[in-house]
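Let us work through a complete example step by step.
Step 1: write down the sequence.
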Amino acid sequence: MTKVIQPKELSDPRPRYSQGILAEGGKLLFIAGQTASDKEGNVVGKGDIEAQTHQVFKNLSAVLKDVGGSLDNLVMTTTYITDRKYREGYNRVRQQYYKKNSPTSTLVIVTGLANPDYLIEINGIAVI
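Step 2: predict the structure and record it as tokens.
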């Protein structure tokens, strides 16, 4: 069971993310950084932040589904993008995937990821 925490003393960032999430019971699932690689290891959407973000969410969903969860179980994510200009495209796609509450979230701009074709990587913590 989780409860979204949005203190009145802080700005309300919804629907982008929640200020805090209180989790009770359940098991923690730590999800490694997911990239825009498909099942065969091919980079999906080279040069296209929105296509890559969709693939990353598909990969996050696969990990969650494997243990009986969904994106609704995420309580924290850290997102790495390689350029500030990708922020809006990432946010447009991200909001399509969080139907209830968004997890807590940190966005980091980095100079590069493991593969130079990757524009985005997301890791997370879920309560199942």
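Step 3: interpret the result. The helical segments are 49-66, 87-97.
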